Amino acid sequence: YDRNAFFLGNDIAVIALSDRITDVDPAGLVDTAPDVGSLATIVGYGTAGVGSDPMGQFFDFRRRAATNVIEAISNFVGGLPNGLLFTDFENPDDPASFDFFGDPTVSPLEGTTAPGDSGGALFVQDADGNFLLAGVTSGGFNVFGPNNTFGDVAFFTNVALMRPFIDSVNPLRQVQPLGSGNWLDTSIWQGGLIPSNVNALFDLGDPTLLSLFFEVTIQDGVDVTLSDPFGIEIDTLTTEGGSLSLTGQSLLSVVDYVNVVDGGITVSDAELDSGWLLMQGGMLEIASDGIYFDSSPFIDLGTIMLDGTIQNDGIFATDFLDLRGGQFLVGESGIYSDFAGSLVTGGLLDVAGEFLTSQFSQAGGTVHIGETGLVADLSGVSVMVDGSLIVDGFFDTGAFGQDGGTVGGTGIIRAPLGFLHTGGILNPGNSVGTLIIAGDYLQTGDADSIGILNIDIDETGADLLAVLPDPLTGVGGNAVLDGVVLANFKPGFVPERGALYRVIETEGALLGSPIVFGQATTTTGDPTVMHLADSLIVNDADAGVVSGPGSAAYVLAVGEDYTPFAETEQQRAVASALDAVTTPTSIDRAGVRPIVRALDGLSILGPLATALQTLNPTEVFLFDRFGFQLTRMLGNRLARRAGASRGAAYGGVDASAFLVNPLRFAMAGSSDGARV
């Protein structure tokens, strides 16, 4: 290039930026020059105006575009052969009057270049409509009048002719290892050039000195090791099925990004630095003596997980965690930290070590905090709108807001500014257990959203939500329940009538009037007559509730009458007899307890009626099979007495003896003998 003879066709330069541009979709480069007659688009920031008014031109730093037709591919005398692309600027109202090349073709947005446009682009489009860079604005002239008016000829450096030069000085080197081996072994790299940005300068001829930037891809079936106390810097790293092992106090610094598509990276007694991390599959394993560090100078994309696994048993520091899929596992020795927060919308975050985040948000996926795990939200405000959060360890924040999803576990949620429950499900315990909130608990509900306190109940007892003061500040320990309390009975478990289950206890006040619901079911999920009373019992000594120094609330198991589920006269006779000796919360006669307990566990969708039918047999007295201590002999004797005096209303038996007994005689017909 000769700055004093720019028109010779060498007017082009390649600029390498220190940072990757990620928010622009770049145009491609042409491989061959476009045909003469091709429509082209000119883009630049130069002088603006109209072709008929040379005095009306102005400069306002705005980018503008125009179209034109490539009229020639040629060169000036002494210039690079075919080094330039030419256009001319025709007057749309009189194309032939200012036509330099003798082909008066007017394009839809006819225009030309002007001072300030030099270095701008001349684009053409391929068959798919993609813009390709075909020329670089170099200069122009006008034999018909002032420059930049009608008749102006613009010329552009022919990019296709410059492709060998552009490719040779392109600082980005996309490389793959030729086979497995040590990173520092020249034999595994093409040309023997070890990928390393640092001290990788080569001389292209005075005065040019250019640094390379390596984009390394480790393909399937290739295993590479960096095991020396040596620092390597590259631009990008991608694993597509192969593996990379960093050991021996080595350091690999990836300026732009690490992209794990498949395969894996292991960091043990070493450090991996990266501008940002994309997990699309495979595995990144940070051993207990390993380090992953987000080395970008500014907060950027951080860590994006779409799939795959990160196993962190060492130190993992990033700008931001965007967990959409896959698994992020923090082992007991692992420490995670970020600078801008964490967002979980999918996948699994499992924490057995320490997870220190600038702000915790969950809108999907599963977060599990193990018994040894700690999640600390340093912002003091944690938000959950969907997904599952299981706290078996410790969740430390200032205020926790739940508007969706499920929160459960047997650990501790420290929220001295309060746990606000406006939606979703709070499910203490792990069927069955206790979850502690250190702070205040406020449950609300309206037409749009309602907080649900879900309590699992089985033969061992019920889940418990314990609301205690924050041990550090002493504040909290109060609860307000104004949403729903829902009991989830274990299928097949039948609670006793009148059974009380403690569901929440506080060291302070316990207020509110929640909706209470719970239905006992069979093992197949069918409803039974057992359910919960529709209100909580709070500190009620008359109901046998014993409270500690604070407050406690209980749910009460009640049973419905059997009569509404009887379908025949025989069934109704037995049902009314049993209803007479039971209440929703008690069984008044010990002799019928086995029968009632059995019936309480049957489905009301048919089996209960069938059982009632069995309990009203003909010909013989069969109640003994359900626990009555009456023998068949006694039953037959009663039947004979009834038959002997069939004319009497009750077959000669003293009916007064049965008026307070749950068993009643039925009227006997002449054809089927006596009934009991």
Describe the protein in words:
The chain has 676 residues and is mainly β. It is built from five helices and 48 strands. Strand 47 (666-669) and strand 48 form a beta hairpin.
Q: How much is the average pLDDT? A: 87
Structural class: mainly beta
Radius of gyration: 42 Å
Q: Terminal Cα separation, in Å? A: 118 Å
- What is the CATH class of the domain at 6-169? Mainly Beta
Number of strands: 48
> What fraction of residues sit in β-strands?
35-45%
**Shape label:** elongated
For this entry, give a set of tags.
Thrombin, subunit H, mainly beta, 676 residues, 34-stranded mixed beta sheet, 5 helices
Topology summary:
Layout: E1 28-29, E2 39-44, E3 64-69, E4 72-74, E5 84-88, E6 121-125, E7 131-141, E8 153-158, H1 159-169, E9 172-175, E10 181-182, E11 201-203, E12 209-211, E13 213-219, E14 223-226, E15 231-246, E16 251-267, E17 271-286, E18 291-294, E19 303-312, E20 315-318, E21 321-323, E22 327-330, E23 335-338, E24 342-344, E25 348-351, E26 354-357, E27 360-369, E28 374-377, E29 381-391, E30 394-396, E31 399-409, E32 412-428, E33 434-443, E34 452-458, E35 461-462, E36 464-468, E37 479-481, E38 484-489, E39 500-506, E40 510-511, E41 515-521, E42 527-532, E43 537-538, E44 551-559, H2 569-580, E45 582-583, E46 586-587, H3 593-600, H4 607-614, H5 632-644, E47 666-669, E48 673-675
Parallel strand pairs: 1-7, 9-13, 10-14, 13-15, 14-15, 15-16, 16-17, 17-18, 17-19, 18-20, 19-21, 19-22, 20-23, 21-24, 22-25, 23-26, 24-27, 25-27, 26-28, 27-29, 28-30, 29-31, 30-32, 31-32, 32-33, 32-34, 33-36, 33-37, 34-38, 36-39, 37-40, 38-41
Antiparallel strand pairs: 2-3, 2-6, 4-5, 5-8, 6-7, 7-8, 11-12, 34-35, 39-44, 41-42, 42-44, 43-44, 45-46, 47-48
